[in-house]
Design a protein that fits this description.
This protein has 128 residues and is mostly helical. It has helices spanning 4-30, 33-64, 69-97, 101-121, 124-127.
Length: 128
């Protein structure tokens, strides 16, 4: 079995951890609120598109190399969850712009939940 089946989910895990551990805390500690908002509105769509791209590549690799349904399903779920999180971004931004803190909290929590689920399910290939 080639290592590509571990490289792609490893990259997904790495991107999520890097974003969470290094980027987010650094942004909030060093950039003023107006520029933080601009930065986050640029980075998060790219973050979820990158995860989506990696998961599609992983799904294709799993399918064409007969890795089994488990791997294929993991990557399809990752793709779906990243698209859902991506689709939440405009609504989250609108809630922020409208100062609707309740709606923002719900949408942000959903985005975080999908990101955590993506992180967890991409550990599965390392266990199997």
């Amino acid at each position: 079995m080639s290592n590509i089946n571990l490289i792609l989910p490893g990259l997904i895990i790495g991107v999520i951890l890097y974003q969470t551990v290094f980027v987010a805390p650094s942004v909030f500690q060093t950039i003023d609120s107006e520029n933080t908002s601009k930065f986050l509105r640029k980075i998060f769509p790219r973050f979820f598109i990158f995860i989506f791209t990696l998961s599609i590549l992983a799904a294709l690799e799993a399918y064409y190399n007969s890795r089994g349904n488990t791997f294929y399903i993991i990557y399809l779920i990752t793709s779906l969850f990243s698209l859902i999180a991506f689709s939440l971004i405009p609504m989250t931004n609108k809630a922020t712009d409208n100062n609707d803190k309740h709606k923002f909290k719900i949408l942000h929590s959903l985005s975080v939940l999908f990101t955590i689920l993506i992180l967890i399910i991409n550990f599965i290939p390392f266990i199997l």
